Amino acid sequence: MNITGDIYEYCNGNQLGVNQDVFIELSLLSYAQFQKWCQRNKLNRLRTAGRGRTGLIAWSSIPDEYLEKIKKAFGDPYRKDDVDSFVSRLNNDDKAAVFFMKAGLSPQKEYQHYIEAQILNLYGELLQEIEVKAARNTSFKKTQAKRELAKVIAELKTLKREDGKAKFPHKLPSNPRSLERRYKEYAEQGYERLIHAGTGNTNTQKIKGALADWLLAKYCLPHKPSITDLHLEYDAYRIAKKWPSLHEDAIYKWLHKPEQKKVWVLARHGKDEYVRQFGHKTTRDKSDYFPYAYLTIDGSKLDWIHFKEGAPYSMGADIKVNLIFDVYSEKIVGHDFSLAEDHQSHFRAFKMALQETQCKPALLTYDNQSGHKMKAVQELYSNIVTANGGQHYAHRAYEHGSPAEQLIGRFQQQFLNKWWFSDKQAITALKADSRPNMEFVKRHREKLKTIDELREVFAYSVEKWNNAAHPKLKVSRNEAATHEQTFALDKISPLDMVQLFWVTSTNTNSYNRDGIRLTVGKERYHFEVYTADGHVDLDFRDNYTGCKFFVQYDPDQLDNYVRLYLRLPNGESKYIADAEPVKSIKSIPLLMDDQDHGRVHKMIGTRDKDVERVQAELEALRQRTNITEESLIEDQELEMKFRGRQPKQSRAMAEAGAGSWLNKL
Questions:
Q1: Number of other CB atoms surrounding residue 436 within 10 Å
Q2: 502-581: CATH topology
């Protein structure tokens, strides 16, 4: 609004004037027309504009059609005192404020209905005053008073705030009878009458007592009846109870009032949903946070489309990531990029995180996924936190979400979803901007990256996030992570890294003639014990084939080596040897290279040596016992010769032989 100064002023005694800017503001006249009307005295100018003064036009000289437009826009000046008096008597209504705040209205509607409640509250008081005056004075015109009161309330719509918006944006009737009828409905039905009109609203007033208890109890049943089912059952039941007829809409509105909704949400959907909607949430005090004091981990599907051989259109979107954030700096200190969000992924992410931070956090939080609950992972978390009072815990559902959730959300929105191969929030997302343009992606699918290539893109995206400015600290996240630590956290040593990230199998595994096998996640691994020069360790095979071992391994180094611990009868274990992945050979000679040929000769040589060694042991055994292949033949020949009647002494001598151990006794 371009009007300066008051709209109405009294000038030259009691002569009412109108600010001349009104004519231009309301497009009643052009500036040239306005000047001509003043020159021709069609408008009576009471005061010219200038030197900080506003120009005034006499109210009495303005045509009626213009007066109506001016009054509609700025109010009736002759009723101004009545309006001011009415406004001065308006009182705040705390109950109305709370009711409309909980009603889920827009700010504009909430303000409108609150104003209407204020006006109707005062209107009710004034109606009582009118009745009192009419009772005391028989000549008092009650109808005329109600008509004037309705006009004053209508005038409230013309009052403006400093920002130009309506000060009292109500939608109450201007007709006196309609206004009084609206007040009676309001007095009977309460604040809800201002929000809803119609039969459904009046029906809600009938829901009380035993009727209300019956509806609520039925709706609370665990098989979750619909409102329609409840309404049909009510209609069949109400006649016997002599309850009133209700509209389905009325039942819905009554059940969705906060006092009823809290009860049936708990009954129908359980504690978690109740806490999510109505539960009290604590507020974190972040004033004492410092770098690496609080780490949080969360896993998420990576919304990127990649090349996948054999899949429809050769496109896949099945990558998972685990991200570890330093809550203070928001820096991503550890991450893992894989096809499965499992405990191995957690280990790899934390290994990176501790290599980056070089200290143990005072607090570590995570979600309630099963991977975090595994014994090995829980042991890792207990060892990761600082020994001097460090804690780790899973966030309870809906009570206080991990800060990683909103950090991942911003990371996705600001960086990950901006790559052309991102599928945003998947093709089923409600918002169009959250869905990928699959036609575009399919047109360029030959340019899709492999998983290994995307791993590099992801690492680059993490680098960009860490180099970007922290939203509150106004420095990069990398720089924020270098701020002073106000509490001494335990440092990480190389020995700590070995102790933390080497996992010992829960069950034992048998070492057999083809080595020892280990299953980690869904992957199977095959190991063998070798000597320093790369041959199979035959001594180990002799001593431990058939024995059971606990296998200790680094989940990130399963392609390197593992450690074998022999299970002892007392429940303890003893380190015996390291095992390496089995060295396989190609079975088609044409496909072999020099290394393959060398490996074949080495493996055959190892096998031959094993046979030769055992053969030597066998020969030594035969020599010691004189139980040989030849002695077997001789014994059987003697038996045939004497038909089993060989003298006992001769038989003993024949069995013993000249060089037998019996002759040496």
A1: 20
A2: SH3 type barrels. (2.30.30)
pLDDT at 624: 84
Task: For the chain, give the longest Cα–Cα distance.
Answer: 168
Question: Phi, psi at residue 16, to the nearest 5°?
Answer: -80, 130
Q: What share of the chain is helix, strand, coil (3-state, %, to 5)?
A: 50, 15, 35
- 66/513 Cα distance (integer angstroms): 108
Cα separation of 543 and 155, whole Å?
Answer: 104
Cα dihedral across residues 458, 461, 466, 467: positive or negative: positive
Which pair of structure tokens corresponds to residue 599?
């490996």
C-beta neighbour count of 213 within 10 angstroms? 11
Are 663 and 656 spatial neighbours (Cβ–Cβ below 8 Å)? yes
Give the burial class of 639: count Cβ atoms within 10 A of its Cβ; 0-12 exposed, 13-18 middle, 19 or more buried.
middle
Distance between start and end Cα atoms, the chain = 130
Q: Are 444 and 437 in contact (CB under 8 A)?
A: no
Q: Can you give the pLDDT at residue 203? A: 60
CB atoms within 10 A of CB 563: 17
What pLDDT score was predicted for residue 8? 81
One DSSP character per residue, 67-105 reads HHHHHHHH--GGGHHHHHHHHHT----HHHHHHHHHTT-
209 versus 594: the higher-pLDDT residue is 209
Helix (H) or strand (E) holding 332: strand 332-338
Burial class (CB in 10 A: 0-12, 13-18, 19+), 197: exposed
Distance CA 629, CA 611 (A): 19
Fold of 208-278: Arc Repressor Mutant, subunit A (1.10.10)
Quick count: other Cβ atoms within 10 Å of Cβ 282?
Answer: 7
Question: What's the DSSP call for residue 657?
Answer: -
Contact 227/255 with Cβ under 8 angstroms?
Answer: yes
Q: Please compute the mean of the pLDDT values over residues 540-566 and round it to a whole number.
A: 89
- Which residue shows structure tokens 């013309």? 158
Q: What was the pLDDT predicted at 607? A: 63
Question: What is the average per-residue pLDDT within 557-561?
Answer: 86
528: which strand partners?
A: 580
Cα–chain center distance at 3: 51
The rounded distance, in Å, linking the Cα atoms of 1 and 21 is: 10
- Say which CATH topology domain 294-480 has: Nucleotidyltransferase; domain 5 (3.30.420)
Gyration radius of the chain over CA positions: 45
Sign of the C-alpha dihedral computed for residues 246, 249, 250 and 252 taken in this order:
positive
Q: Which residues pair with 518 in a beta bridge?
A: 525
Give the DSSP per-residue string, 248-293. Answer: HHHHHHHHTSHHHHHHHHHHHHHHHHHHHHH--------TT--TTS
Domain ranges of the chain: 8-74, 88-195, 208-278, 294-480, 502-581, 589-625, 626-665
Give percent of the chain with pLDDT exceeding 90: 33
Phi, psi torsion values for 386, nearest 5 degrees:
-60, 145
pLDDT at 652 over 80: no
Cα–Cα dist 36/42, whole Å: 8
